[in-house]
Amino acid sequence: MFSSATFAFLDELAANNDRAWFAANRDRYEDLVRDPALDFICAMQAPLTGIAPNFRADPRRMGGSLIRVFRDTRFSRDKTPYKTNIGIQFRHSLGKDVHAPGFYLHVASDGCFLGAGCWRPEAAALGRIRDWIVAKPERWFAVRDQPEFRAAWALAGDSLARPPRAYAADHPAIEDLKRKDFIALAPLSRGEIVGGDLVALASGHFAAAVPLMAFLCAAADVPY
């Protein structure tokens, strides 16, 4: 699947991030980045079905689990047209974008990691997660503090500086209620990305994140 040549291409793209260079090297992009990513997605279909039956490993070239290489530059000062990382998200069957609950793989020269959870959920979805923590605090603590989860993952993302409105500042879970992201991350080495056990490694980590994902699905009122 992925190889050292994948990382070399990403480095070259970072140094030549323009449309003319990409057009001239599109075949290399497909051979070294796109096709290995699609192979990984295909290989994850069976284990993901066993781990999370309502989440999808979709190997379509466009509109599937592989996040598009083209950057949205409309509201960014950075007008470089291409992403210099590989992003793969296995979303819930009812999810429509990267902000929905999902499992994730990030491959880049400056760092690789697995992810699980909800990144930058919209306000209504974020409110439902916070309300579910308030309604089920013991269940949330059991998820957050489960030894198997903590051994594989660390909660991450942005948080508010102060408690959100309508939530008690002395709530036992107030530091979690401040979260704007409900994600967990697990760093990977470059060797783990290019090694032969990436599917097994990802599957094992995703299995350890099942309690978190089930909690987030319950908050969203969708089946896990």
Task: Give an account of the 3D structure.
This protein is α+β, with helices and mostly antiparallel strands. Helices cover 46% and strands 13% of the residues. The chain contains 10 helices and 5 strands, in the order H-H-H-E-E-E-H-H-H-E-H-E-H-H-H. The chain has a 5-stranded antiparallel sheet with strand order 1-2-3-5-4. Helix 3 crosses helix 9 and helix 4 (123-135) crosses helix 5. The mean pLDDT is 96.
Q: Which value, in Å, is the CA radius of gyration?
A: 18 Å
**Share of helix among residues?**
40-55%
How would you write the strand order of the largest sheet? 1-2-3-5-4
User: Which runs of at least 5 residues are low in confidence (pLDDT < 50)?
Assistant: none
The proportion of residues in beta strands is: 5-15%
- Order of helices and strands, N to C? HHHEEEHHHEHEHHH
Intertermini distance: 29 Å
Produce the secondary structure layout.
Blueprint: H1 4-15, H2 19-24, H3 26-51, E1 86-91, E2 102-107, E3 112-118, H4 123-135, H5 137-145, H6 147-152, E4 154-156, H7 174-177, E5 182-188, H8 190-194, H9 198-208, H10 210-220
Antiparallel strand pairs: 1-2, 2-3, 3-5, 4-5
Helix pairs in contact: 1-3, 3-9, 4-5, 4-10
